[in-house]
Amino acid sequence: MLNDWAQRVRFWVDFELIDVALLAALTIVIVCRLALLGTHFRKMGKGSFKALHVDVFPVAGESAAQKTRRNEEWFQVTVRQESTVLVAGSIVLATWAVLFTTLKTPPSDEISYLTRNLLLASSITLMLARTFFRAPGREISYICTEGAMVVGYTTFALGLASILADLFSVTGIALAMIIAAGIAVRELMEAWEYLRYYR
User: What are the angstrom distances between the C-alpha of 74 and each of 81, 121, 137?
Assistant: First the structure.
């Protein structure tokens, strides 16, 4: 009786802890991306909303022709963003649909609600990125779509980490914790570099 109770408590604590870790990592990414967007718009002002094309950061010793070429390359990147987010969103949605339709059959019956919700949230984020930011080449579209892509990919990665925790018990939980910590640290490092640049 006591052992059974102890196992239940350990199971609850383990999975509650990993849920908190995954959601904390996602929250850090979202907050960092919003901070970067806010910092960019504060520095650039209304120009970000009016700019017809992405204006790349200047590089020391770069000629006007070289900067123009880099601007053109970045414009093509913004155009490719549309197909990238739609394909990625479709793949994540298909993953979620498989887990949802096989909900009551092994091993899908061991997948938690958090896992399925993370996958669905990832798909929605990626799909909506191009719904709201549809003008390729515009600076505002590029920056916001890039932020949505990072959040969407992060949510998908955390969903996969949650699957590890669901299916592989202690080992899966340890790996999921490492993934969540790595994502959070990497995002904080990148945000710090960008914020230093904008000072």
Answer: 11, 28, 8
pLDDT, tens digit (0-9, with 9 covering 90-100), for 152-172: 999 999 999 999 988 888 888
Give whole-number Cα distances, 95 to 7, 75, 116, in Å. 31, 31, 9
Tokens of 167: 């299916």
SS3 content of the chain, % helix, strand, coil (to 5): 85, 0, 15
Strand segments (E) across 66-193:
none
22-47: per-residue pLDDT in tens? 999 999 999 999 988 888 777 766 55
**Can you tell me the distance from the alpha carbon of 21 to that of 11, in angstroms, rounded to the nearest whole number?**
15
Contact 89, 123 (CB under 8 A): yes
The set of residues, in sequence order, having a beta carbon less than 8 Å from that of 121 and lying 6+ positions away, is 155
How many residues would you count in the chain?
A: 199
Instruction: Confirm if 135 and 54 have CB atoms less than 8 A apart.
Output: no
CB 124 within 8 A of CB 96: no
Q: Residue 26: left (phi > 0), alpha (psi -120 to 50), or beta? A: alpha
Residue 64 has pLDDT above 80, yes or no: no
CA distance 140 to 50: 8
CA–CA distance, 66 with 88 (Å, rounded to integer): 32
Cα of first residue to Cα of last residue in the chain, in angstroms, is 61
